[in-house]
Design goal:
By secondary structure, the protein is α/β, with parallel strands linked by helices. The chain has helices spanning 3-6, 44-62, 66-82, 84-95, 99-119, 156-169, 184-196, 211-214, 217-220, 233-245, 268-280, 300-312, 332-347, 394-403, 418-426, 462-468, and strands at 10-12, 15-17, 24-28, 35-40, 126-128, 135-143, 146-150, 173-177, 204-206, 226-230, 249-253, 258-262, 290-296, 351-354, 358-359, 362-363, 366-369, 386-392, 407-408, 411-414, 434-435, 451-452, 455-456, 469-477. Helix 3 runs antiparallel to helix 5 (99-119) and helix 5 runs parallel beside helix 6. It is globular and about 80 Å long.
């Protein structure tokens, strides 16, 4: 029995069971169209059952010694190590990830589980002075209670674990809704691993469903205090609005339109390698991907020739083939949208230095140059293997172009002068930026998040404590207060 048969269920209060909705979410392999599983959707009633189970289980879990809690994550880590090949095969089948992408995702999952073990011990209390004689002020860091997690399809295993593990480690319970295109890797696998690792029943619940069935019930429900959402800016705006209306804290990790900037003193060959990876890793379906590559006119010709040649050499095809660089997009609708976007850009005046063809969900890379100044492509996120080459004259113009987007997630700048790169980076309106490297990075203890329309809040390291705990003030009057009446 494969994971896709075994885990094609809801996981509520420690039980694997079928959803009671009247229709199924069908899970397909994006490369060959094979049906992987069929899952009856969860209803509003099951959303309630999941949250109520989480609420009940959290009380004891929140009071559990953190040294005991972290043992669960140690066991989860061992399970992943033992089943690496099976997990990798599942990610390749459901997500269309190449072997390099699968390895990258599993590596980061391990690192985030290791960090979760440390997070269990991280919350610290404080004692603050008082202007009132005899008064002692204690500040306690306590779990928020129940966290709702909504994860995306591109790195489903990692981006579910990334919020689920810290929330649990800090004493919370979780209700996780994976993306409809990746219900097993983003949901079932996470639940299975923690179940086998000994996580008490009810603390992690997975509901596979769709907004068409449940509306905003996952966010509006009175139990969760925090919603952690990773996905598109459009959906993120809606999540933020509903969460705010219900007095919930929302952590939003949204889209990007990152730029990789090549200054006139950069190592061109190295910058080419960084730019190709930054744009085309996982077919460009990465929020931190370099949609735009900005190149100083002094080195534009050399960079462009080498960049286009390298992109043209990328192999498109079966993600399980070790030689494949670019696998399928998540579904045909996304592939068709990317192809239409390229055609429209060319019709509007862009030059196709490389115009990739589309076959089903396989989309070969496209490199576009000469875009009109008013092209909407310059300011939007492109979730596919398309890159824009943009020349500039001098650092000031590069900064202006880089910032000319509503997004501000990641970025990179290449230069032979590190301090010049730092000065440039400080001027870019983005949550993360890397000097002489790619745009796609995530590390467990470094704050991760964006500015502007790329999200609200940060994840990783100490930011996880801020996200998934709350501060409680308890004062003690050791003497006797004087009251005016």
């Amino acid at each position: 029995m494969s994971y896709f048969d075994e885990l094609a269920y809801q996981f509520i209060d420690g039980e694997w069971r079928s959803g009671s909705g009247s229709w199924d979410i069908v899970d397909f392999n994006p490369y060959n169209g094979e049906k992987l599983s069929s899952i009856a959707v969860a209803t509003v009633e099951e959303i309630d059952q999941a949250y109520r189970a989480a609420e009940r289980a959290q009380r004891e879990w929140g009071a559990t010694n953190p040294y005991t809690r972290r043992l669960v994550f140690e066991r989860a880590l061992r399970i992943i190590d033992e089943r690496e090949d099976e997990l990798g095969a599942a990610i390749a089948a459901e997500v269309g990830g190449t072997l390099a992408k699968v390895g990258f995702e599993l590596h980061l999952v391990r690192e985030f589980l290791r960090e979760a073990m440390q997070l269990a011990l991280r919350p610290e209390g404080r004692i603050l002075p008082s202007p009132i004689d005899g008064k002692e002020n204690r500040l306690y860091r306590l779990p928020v209670g129940v966290v709702g997690v909504i994860s995306p399809f591109n790195f489903p295993f990692l981006l579910s674990i990334k919020s689920v593990a810290p929330a649990l480690a800090l004493g919370n319970a979780v209700v996780l809704k994976p993306h409809q295109n990746t219900p097993i890797c983003g949901g079932g696998l996470v639940a299975k691993i923690f179940e086998e690792a000994g996580l008490p029943a009810g603390l992690l619940n997975v509901v596979v469903t769709d907004i068409a069935e449940i509306g905003d019930a996952l966010i509006e429900h009175p139990v969760p205090k925090t919603i952690s959402f990773t996905g598109s800016e459009k959906v993120g705006r809606h999540v933020a609005t509903v969460a705010a209306a219900n007095f919930k804290h929302a952590i939003l990790e949204l889209g990007g339109n990152s730029a990789l900037v090549v200054l006139d003193d950069a190592d061109i060959d190295y910058a080419v390698d960084a730019a190709v990876f930054s744009r085309f890793v996982h077919q460009g379906q990465v929020c931190m991907a370099a949609n735009r590559v900005l190149v100083d006119r002094a080195v534009e010709r050399e960079f462009t020739e080498k960049f286009v040649a390298k992109v043209a050499s990328l192999k498109v095809g079966d993600p399980t083939d070790p030689g494949t660089h670019i696998g399928p997009l998540i579904n045909e609708g996304q592939a068709e949208a990317i192809a239409a976007l390229v055609d429209r850009a060319v019709a509007d005046g862009a030059s196709a230095l490389l115009h990739g063809e589309t076959r089903g969900t396989l989309v070969a890379p496209s490199v576009l140059g000469g875009l009109p100044a008013d092209s909407p492509l310059l300011t939007q996120e492109i979730f596919g293997p398309v890159v824009l080459l943009i020349p500039f004259d001098g650092d000031d113009e590069a900064v202006r172009i880089t910032n000319a987007t509503p997004y501000g997630l990641s970025g990179a700048v290449h230069t032979g002068d590190i301090e010049r790169g730092v000065r440039f980076a400080k001027r870019v309106d983005t949550g993360m930026i890397h000097i002489n490297d790619g745009t796609v990075h995530d590390e467990p203890i470094v704050p991760f998040g964006g500015e502007k329309s790329s999200g609200v809040g940060r994840l990783n390291g100490e930011a996880m404590v801020e996200a998934f705990t709350t501060t409680k003030w308890i004062s003690i009057q050791h003497g006797r207060s004087q009251f005016p009446f």
